[in-house]
Write a structure and sequence with these properties.
Structural class: alpha/beta
Number of strands: 9
Largest sheet: 7 strands, parallel
Order of helices and strands: EHEHEHEHEHEHEHEHHE
Strand order of the largest sheet: 3-2-1-4-5-6-8
Shape: globular
């Protein structure tokens, strides 16, 4: 059983559901988020379940602050499991044909660079101890890119490739790395996704599936099956068929508040 767990993006959605899932006496949780009120509310629930909580009000784009928090947390509570879950969905607005360059840069900085920085802040200590598990939360968009959110798709594809490569690189040191590829999950993120959400599941269901995949040390934890399997073969499907199949799930993104 994991006793020291860090979760980024813990103030809502999958991150909050995972925090509650793992909360129990004897577990120490490092919860990282950007919204103080929401993070505090999740921390209160987790403490009520008997877990010890260390809150980190951190923007992943601030590499110095992020690294400092993670190193200090690990020194006090050697991390068994890191779940790099924080991320944003952004893309084409309602009146646009494509996303802007500014949106693209911001999404990649948070979703890809922020996750890579998170991993590298924790990985050296895990390698030294020769134990630990890191889960990088990507998306099914990594396998089947979204025309309305190219940078989001690219950032998640980059994270998938990075995680799979790093898994092979450190496997001999008994450090495990998995990449999570969810479909539509109920969260604040999907509320900004104005369009259809086929096969959407709750964040609580996602947490159970992620934990099961981590315990099995799966290299890629993809779900739901109804979307994961088609996403795996989408690269080999002729483009015109892909366009027809995805026509019903085109969307735009509401501006972030």
């Amino acid at each position: 059983m994991f006793q020291s767990i860090v979760i980024t993006g813990a103030s809502s959605g999958i991150g909050a559901a995972l925090a509650k899932f793992y909360a129990r006496p004897g577990v120490t949780l490092g919860l990282i988020g950007r919204d103080a009120a929401r993070l505090g509310a999740i921390a209160t629930e987790v403490r009520a379940a008997g877990a010890t909580v260390v809150e980190g009000l951190v923007d992943l784009r601030d590499r110095v602050v992020l690294t400092k928090f993670l190193i200090e947390f690990d020194a006090a509570h050697p991390i068994d499991l890191l779940i790099a879950n924080a991320g944003v969905l952004d893309g084409r607005r309602a009146d646009d044909v494509v996303e802007t360059a500014e949106i693209a840069r911001s999404v990649i900085e948070i979703n890809l660079i922020g996750a890579v920085d998170t991993l590298h802040a924790v990985l050296p200590a895990m390698r030294k101890r020769r134990r630990g598990h890191i889960a990088l939360v990507s998306s099914l968009a990594a396998l089947s890119p979204l025309a309305d959110a190219p940078a989001y798709s690219a950032s998640k594809a980059g994270l998938l490739s990075y995680g799979r490569a790093m898994r092979a690189a450190v496997a001999h040191e008994n450090v495990r790395i998995s990449v999570v590829c969810p479909g539509y999950v109920t969260s604040a993120m999907t509320e900004t996704h104005i369009g259809n959400h086929p096969h959407k599941i709750s964040a609580e269901e996602a947490a159970v599936l992620i934990d099961a995949g981590i315990k099995r040390n799966k290299p890629v934890i993809g779900f739901p099956a109804a979307l994961y399997l088609p996403s795996l073969i989408s690269t080999f499907v002729p483009e015109f068929i892909t366009r027809m199949a995805t026509k019903g799930i085109r969307f735009h993104v509401a501006p972030r508040r």
